[in-house]
Amino acid sequence: MSDWDFRQVLHCNSTMKALIDANWQRHKLDMAYDAFISSYYCRETGNATLTREANRIWVAYNNWGYWPNNGWAMFTLVAFGLSALLHIYQILRSRYWSFVMVVMGCGGEMYGWSMRWIGGQNLLRGYGEQLAALTVSPIVFSGALYSLFGSLARSMNPSLLPIGSKKLTWWLFGVEFFTLLVQVGGGATAAGAEDASTFNVGSWIMLGGIVAQLVVTLIFLAVFGVYFSRLRSRHNVDIRYADSHLKVVFWGIIAISSLIVIRGAYRTAELSEGMFGPIAHSQAGLILGDCIPMLAVTYIFNVVHPLYTLQKRTDHVFNLEDNEEIKLGQV
Fold it and tell me: Which UniProt keywords apply (predicted)?
């Protein structure tokens, strides 16, 4: 069966049944290829036990580990699409072009979930594409987050940052992009592995990239905390009594960062046990640990968009040349 074409018509026979019975409890890397082929033809027999075992081999050997839920995939496509359309409107109104990254992220998520919808029709298709898209998309969400904070800092007092606001934004995004390259390299290594050791190396490389990305987000949160701590100590800016628009941005950045950390923690746990471990083969885990957090991120970006926040703030503006504060509103 080495020259197998899934379009050819074969009947489930005793040899196929024996292969399925011997392989259905094995890890994907230990399954016999002929058992995978056999599972295709024995998935719809009248024997409930054989059908269950054949389906177990079929979904595992095709990498998914389950049948993707088409209903959820369609809902996600619509949800990300609506957020993207609103972002396009907000960008055109505000001319805040860095939020194009959020639209790009929504597009990546939509592509990934469209591939999952296709995979729900045919497990032979879509796995690699959806894995790549859902891995890459959060990178640009992080870039938009750093840009938002940089703009906020520039509108108040950028001198309180450890480095310049633009340098900080590009440094953080540059490191994020590097972690992306690491993840892609690890994924390519694992996907092309012909033995368990090479596969494990690829998985660990991907894990390293995810952990590095998580660390960058935590560093950002530390810088964010230091900045607002300095604002309070040096300029008596208390977020509890600040302008409402500043509050929205402040809590929005915290919420987005927290959701990115949650997603990073999920991916770390997933890859720590291998790409085909129990977490990776849990569709509910992907939805709760990745999809819902990233969907929430896009809509929070809609709420905290500079069109409604930074362009309408009425709190302190600092004159950096003479260090005088010009009070435009109650803080």
Answer: Membrane, Transmembrane, Transmembrane helix
Structure confidence at residue 293 as a pLDDT band (50, 70, 90): very high
pTM tops 0.85, yes or no: no
Handedness of CA 73, 128, 216, 103 (dihedral sign): negative
DSSP state of 289: I
Q: Find, among 4, 89, 19, the residue nearest to 50 by Cα.
A: 19
CA distances to 32, 62, 84, 96, 114 from 111, rounded to whole Å, are 32, 19, 13, 24, 5
In the chain the domains, ranked by start, together with CATH numbers, are 14-61 (no CATH), 70-326 (1.20.1070)
**Cβ-based neighbours of 29, under 8 Å, separated by 6 or more:** 195, 196, 199, 276
Task: Give yes or no for a contact between 308 and 301, defined as CB atoms under 8 angstroms apart.
Answer: no
110 vs 35: which has the higher pLDDT: 110
So what's the pLDDT on residue 288? Answer: 96
